[in-house]
Design a protein that fits this description.
mainly beta; 1 helix; 12% helix; lysosome; Late endosomal/lysosomal adaptor and MAPK and MTOR activator 4; LAMTOR4
Length: 120
């Protein structure tokens, strides 16, 4: 599979990290973007420090960071962290016919989208 043409509608970049934060693969807007990898690892480390009585650690399957013109979807599978950057239209909506594309881990522990595309 050619990862530079990766897989998801409206995708404009991606990072695949090892669970220690090392960049394995990258493309698009996130090509060789160590800074974003470090920021996202900091965010993931912060989520691990949240009190289990407030939010159970095991309940977090995906983190979405939403900005006016783009968003990031972050999830973990098989000791890898997958970050996908999505583009939005001028009014803040995604450019596809659906309202948004989500990336998540399915019942088979595979990285997939809400449109059913298997990513890894």
């Amino acid at each position: 599979m050619d990862k530079d043409k990766l897989i998801v509608p409206n995708q404009i970049g991606y990072l695949i990290l090892k669970d220690d934060g090392a960049v394995l693969e990258s493309g698009g807007d996130l090509k060789n973007d160590e800074r974003s990898a470090n920021v996202i690892m900091g965010l993931l480390n912060l989520t691990e420090s949240i009190d289990d009585n407030f939010i159970a650690n095991s309940s977090c399957e995906r983190i979405t960071i939403d900005y006016e013109h783009h968003s990031y979807s972050i999830c973990m599978s098989n000791r890898h962290i997958y970050i996908v950057k999505f583009s939005k239209g001028q009014n803040g909506a995604t450019t596809s016919s659906s309202s948004s594309t989500s990336v998540y881990i399915d019942a088979n522990n595979e990285l997939t989208t809400n449109s059913g595309t298997v990513l890894a």
